[in-house]
Specification:
It comes from Moritella yayanosii. A hairpin with a 3-residue loop joins strand 2 and strand 3. The longest helix has 30 residues. It is built from six helices and five strands. The protein is an alpha+beta fold. It has a domain of about 90 residues. About 40% of the residues lie in helices and about 20% in strands.
């Protein structure tokens, strides 16, 4: 009986220090399709920073509690005092540790949720960019532009509405996550190239049933852009955090989507041709 209780307490202690598992978001944690070099991320702090710090502190707390529990048990056994360490003492210690862990986790989740931006519902076809002949592109006046790099192209047509495009990208990210949760492959197919769709379909088959991943908050920025007479390409970087409501776990969003638009076709949509994690 003594050995069984010792093992149970050690398993509980180590579970506090174990890292969180990753929730299952759109595309999983793999990279698919085309890949391009992009500009460095903006130096201004991202909205995901507080959540990362909170997760780090939580992990530290879990490790400390786990270490104290395991250390106390080992010390008591080698000191010959284990017989005085009653079963109810173990239950109380485990309960206190668990309550502290849950309380701290709740505080971190509340802090992250307070920074959440309300996702806007997607409207219209995938990544539509209506032409605006009178508009003039100005990198200094439009938010979300990462800044050019010598070997990364930032060439956009004059009628490109960057602000609207990035707002739409954020909305479409939520739309695709919802479709991924519900295994709605028909909707996903409208947003991606044929090659990427085939890879994503295989990836989704590895997941069983409906998923429960929700986007908590999301920042979007343009990190690459190139245009020719027949083709426009852009790369969009997403930073944020998401949560699996079923498993009650959270993880960071840090990925780049590469999109293309065929300029030889009238009113052609932007299609995702690559996802880099």
């Amino acid at each position: 009986m003594k050995n069984i209780l010792t093992v149970l307490m050690m398993v509980f202690a180590f579970s506090l220090a174990a890292p969180e598992v990753h929730a299952k978001k759109f595309g999983g944690s793999k990279s698919f399709g085309k890949s391009y070099k992009t500009a460095p991320q903006k130096q201004t702090p991202a909205a995901a920073t507080p959540a990362k710090q909170g997760m780090s502190k939580k992990g530290m707390l879990g490790g400390m509690l786990g270490g104290l529990l395991v250390g106390g048990l080992i010390a008591s056994m080698f000191g010959g005092a284990f017989e005085g360490f009653q079963f109810m003492d173990m239950i109380i210690m485990a309960g206190v540790a668990f309550l502290l862990f849950r309380l701290f986790k709740g505080m971190m989740q509340a802090k992250a949720a307070s920074q959440q931006g309300s996702p806007q519902p997607a409207s219209g076809p995938a990544f539509r960019q209506e032409a605006q002949p009178d508009a003039t592109f100005n990198t200094a006046s439009q938010g979300g532009f990462a800044g050019s790099s010598n070997d990364v192209p930032f060439n956009l047509p004059a009628d490109f509405d960057l602000t609207s495009f990035l707002s739409g990208a954020r909305s479409h990210y939520n739309t695709l996550q919802k479709a991924w949760n519900e295994n709605d492959l028909e909707t996903i197919q409208e947003y991606v190239s044929i090659e990427l769709y085939n890879e994503l379909r295989v990836q989704r088959k590895e997941l069983e049933g409906e998923q429960h991943t929700e986007v908590m908050f999301l920042d979007v920025e343009l990190v690459r852009a190139e245009s020719t007479a027949s083709l426009s390409q852009v790369s969009v970087k997403f930073n944020g955090r998401y949560r699996d409501g079923h498993e009650d776990v959270e993880a960071d969003i840090n990925e780049v989507w590469h999109l293309e638009r065929d300029l030889t076709q009238e009113d052609a949509p932007w299609l995702i041709t690559g996802i880099e994690q």
